[in-house]
Q: What sequence folds into this?
């Protein structure tokens, strides 16, 4: 066995054995759905088949819908209530919803990977339809009429002669404890009254009026405030701190130190912050320079040991034609939640209750139970909404911080919010990546050869394992670092969307999975899909240009999936692609997310200021096919958001670091999109697919939006830029070259 | 002891004079809308209005609000009876996570009070200090435009009375 210097990075404390010696855990991004379905039931019913795990009807007729997924600002609550209201034939306002809570809801793993409507929405839809059928059946028995003669409306079953029995009168303790059946009497799309409508989101009124909308706003009685002092760099060890001086400050309840883990609990929030600063000022650390050279990151990544797998090999490579090749790189990217991560924990009766905006309350419970040396049933994790996370931000880590600090002051809830610099320095970044593409096109405009290689560390370092939590690596008896997870195809991790959807006669796709982690990383919206789509769509564009083809027509002739073609055509048509005089500064791109979820095509028109290199986005037009649409405005909102967020990644973003520390610890050092760079107009068109299965949509725009912008920059400047971000400085330099 | 006029009511402040206004609003007065985002005046999530000017409450010591009119989003209406700007944000569904939205709304409130006919370019320029990570920018712009349009006829009518 050898000790790897790099392995230090994976942990945040002591030296550990190199990851490449550990077996990778096989896992899906939601932590569910691995292997064959157990019961043959739709969506998450397969894991949790009892109907009353999803739908409860009280004797007074009140109906509660339960989901193991969480609201992340994506509109999930409203969409799930629409689905339940539709199948229960109840006004949406009469339903209440319970979201992810280890004490109350089904375990649906992580709210991730654009899976929520297909997992939970499908389960709720089928459960609600089956509950409706059971209630009708019960009414038929009581009224002694055939079920076919009964109707449901407004929470009651209606029969001949004005008979009317409310859901609450029909329900009994045993009725809904039944397990779901494989098939359900689903409402056909043509009869939808709630699904498919742009129902206003139920969470927005509180958010725009100062209601209690976020975990950050919860104030349980007796609430204390706490802050942690994080080390200045990965692997830093706390050698000295003057805790006593801080403990004497008025309003300070306790200073907690356990190894390198350091925090302070106080009566008030501002007191906690001041105490944190005093602690930090007195703390001494032993740091190690263990980061790669940021200026040389792509080469550093490719030099790491890798586990290589060929995820697609079709035909014989090496066919003749005009060659287009290039290496695309992205830096580490920050999730950059506007609200730093927050949690509240309370220690009572030898157990912990934790309010968290984690994407996975059940896996977090496992991790916290391990960290706290408690049985799982002594830990309850309840989801409450935080600021948008777009993947794994500091949510899980701050929950561990809160639990450790609450343990020091039993009986009082403790709220911890990270400071901005802590979120920016310590969140698990979207990994830096490299993708190399080499392709050939024949004189008649056919792609003849295609090779794509991608290098990336894990995109899935979420808890379960306690060692995935920062605090668990900092305490005096640290947990071992969580082993790196390589997400498998077809969804993939770093290799997500590395397989092009186009019908190329030969193709070879290689995934170089990097078990080491130069910087802490985990899931960020679309995982490797963003860079892989950008690499594919940039190369396809260049192949079209090399062969003298219009880029949209070139894509269409290589697509065999009719829904893909329809989305490409819709975006091109709405944009007015090819109409009028050709204008410099147009770009087009397409992908089907994971090759399994929503289809999305994007067309962009830009101007480039040749003096400064600055990009002005005139307009963006997107078309999306996400199967059955629950809430069209919700879909549009997600796609609009994805377009703008990916624009920000593409033009501006890069985690900066020296050989020891992450340097981009605020918004001036990590600039993102501001209003001056926002497009003049953005349009989203939905290609309707009634009665088709739900397809995940929340991440579908990321790749196509970035790629369309890169293609527009190529079109405007005549230069193909491949190293993200495509900053004004790089564009200006390319124009001058 | 400081006192300020918070959403129309005079309120005494217990906190020390140098305490950032944000923590006074959230802790002492139990208000939710102004959010901690960066503590550095870089993101705008904490924005409130003092005497008609949008300010970052995270870097404004409470003593600077002494005897001044402090307006937070709570002062513009309630979920049951939303004010015109709040109505417009609901109508435009101008939020995803929504964490940045109260700050954006307060700066828009100050702008529209000062310039009811603010151009789209002026609205964009005014919002430059504010960050939104969800990419809701287009809807935020639309909502402010909707609010401006909804507020203008009434103010014109009132002015004409």
A:
């Amino acid at each position: 066995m050898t000790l790897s210097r790099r392995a230090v990075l994976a942990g945040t404390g002591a030296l550990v054995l190199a990851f490449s010696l550990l077996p990778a855990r096989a896992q899906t991004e939601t932590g569910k759905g691995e292997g064959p379905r157990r019961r043959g039931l739709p969506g998450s019913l397969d894991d949790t088949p009892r109907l009353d795990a999803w739908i409860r009807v009280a004797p007074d007729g009140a109906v509660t819908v339960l989901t193991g997924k969480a609201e992340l600002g994506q509109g999930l609550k409203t969409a799930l209530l629409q689905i339940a209201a539709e199948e229960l034939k109840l006004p949406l306002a009469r339903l209440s919803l319970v979201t992810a809570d280890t004490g109350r809801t089904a375990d649906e793993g992580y709210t991730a990977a654009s899976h929520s409507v297909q997992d939970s929405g499908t389960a709720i839809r089928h459960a609600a339809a089956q509950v409706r059928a059971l209630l009708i059946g019960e009414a038929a028995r009581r009224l002694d009429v055939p079920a076919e003669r009964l109707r449901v409306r407004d929470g009651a079953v209606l029969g001949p002669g004005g008979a009317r029995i409310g859901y609450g009168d029909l329900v009994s303790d045993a009725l809904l404890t039944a397990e779901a059946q494989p098939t359900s009497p689903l409402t056909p799309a043509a009869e939808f009254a709630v699904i498919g409508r742009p129902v206003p989101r139920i969470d927005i009124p509180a958010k725009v009026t100062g209601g209690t909308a976020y975990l950050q706003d919860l104030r349980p009685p007796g609430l204390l405030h706490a802050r942690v002092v994080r080390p200045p760099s990965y692997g830093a060890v706390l050698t000295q701190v003057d805790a006593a001086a801080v403990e004497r400050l008025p309003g300070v309840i306790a200073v907690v130190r356990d190894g390198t883990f350091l925090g302070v609990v106080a009566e008030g929030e501002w007191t906690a912050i001041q105490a944190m600063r005093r602690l930090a000022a007195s703390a001494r650390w032993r740091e190690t320079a263990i980061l790669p050279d940021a200026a040389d990151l792509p080469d550093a990544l490719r030099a790491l040991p890798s586990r290589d797998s060929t995820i697609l090999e079709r035909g014989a490579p090496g066919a003749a034609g005009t060659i287009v090749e290039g290496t695309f790189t992205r830096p580490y990217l920050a999730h950059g939640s506007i609200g730093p991560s927050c949690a509240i924990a309370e220690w009572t009766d030898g157990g912990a209750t934790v309010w968290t905006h984690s994407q996975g309350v059940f896996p977090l419970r496992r991790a916290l139970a391990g960290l706290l040396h408690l049985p799982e049933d002594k830990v309850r994790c309840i989801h409450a909404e935080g600021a948008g996370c777009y993947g794994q931000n500091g949510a899980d880590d701050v929950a561990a911080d809160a639990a450790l600090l609450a343990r020091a002051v039993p009986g009082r809830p403790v709220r911890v919010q990270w400071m901005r610099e802590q979120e920016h320095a310590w969140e698990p970044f979207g990994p830096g990546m490299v993708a190399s593409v080499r392709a050939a096109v024949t004189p008649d405009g056919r792609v003849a050869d295609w090779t794509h290689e991608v290098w990336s560390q894990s995109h899935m370092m979420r808890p379960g394992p306690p060692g995935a939590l920062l605090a668990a690596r900092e305490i005096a008896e640290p947990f071992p670092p969580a082993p790196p997870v390589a997400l498998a195809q077809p969804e993939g991790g770093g290799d997500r969307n590395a397989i092009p959807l186009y019908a190329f006669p030969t193709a070879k796709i290689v995934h170089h999975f990097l078990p080491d982690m130069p910087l802490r990383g985990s899931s960020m919206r679309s995982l490797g899909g963003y860079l892989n789509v950008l690499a594919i769509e940039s190369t396809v564009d260049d192949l079209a240009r090399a062969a003298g083809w219009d880029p949209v027509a070139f894509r269409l002739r290589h697509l065999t999936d009719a829904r893909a073609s329809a989305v490409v055509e819709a975006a091109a048509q709405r944009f007015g692609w090819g109409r009028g005089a050709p204008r410099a500064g147009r770009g087009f791109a397409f992908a089907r997310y994971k090759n399994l979820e929503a289809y999305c095509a994007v067309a962009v028109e830009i101007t480039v200021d040749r003096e400064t290199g600055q990009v002005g986005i005139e307009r963006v037009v997107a078309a999306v096919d996400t199967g059955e649409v629950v809430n069209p405005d919700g879909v549009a909102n997600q796609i609009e958001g994805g377009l703008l967020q990916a624009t920000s990644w593409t033009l501006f973003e890069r985690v900066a670091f020296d050989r020891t520390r992450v340097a981009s610890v605020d918004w001036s050092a990590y600039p993102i999109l501001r209003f001056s760079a926002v497009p003049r107009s953005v349009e989203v068109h939905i290609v309707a697919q009634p009665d088709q299965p739900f397809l995940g949509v929340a991440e579908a725009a990321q790749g196509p939006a970035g790629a369309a912008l890169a293609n527009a920059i190529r079109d405007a400047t005549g230069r193909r830029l491949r190293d993200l971000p495509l900053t004004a400085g790089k564009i200006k330099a390319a124009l001058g070259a | 002891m400081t006192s300020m006029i918070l959403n129309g009511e005079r309120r005494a402040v217990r906190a020390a004079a140098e305490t950032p206004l944000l923590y006074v609003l959230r802790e002492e007065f139990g208000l939710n809308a102004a959010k901690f985002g960066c503590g550095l005046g870089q993101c705008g999530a904490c924005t409130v209005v003092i005497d008609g000017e949008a300010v970052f409450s995270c870097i404004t010591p409470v003593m600077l609000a002494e005897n001044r009119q402090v307006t937070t989003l709570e002062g513009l209406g309630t979920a049951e009876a939303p004010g015109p700007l709040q109505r417009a944000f609901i109508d435009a569904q101008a939020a995803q996570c929504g964490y940045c939205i109260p700050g954006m709304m307060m700066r828009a409130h100050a702008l529209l009070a000062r310039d009811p006919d603010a151009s789209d370019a002026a609205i964009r320029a005014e919002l430059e200090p504010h960050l939104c990570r969800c990419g809701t920018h287009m809807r935020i712009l639309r909502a402010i435009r909707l609010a401006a349009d909804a507020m203008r006829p009434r103010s014109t009518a009132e002015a004409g009375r």
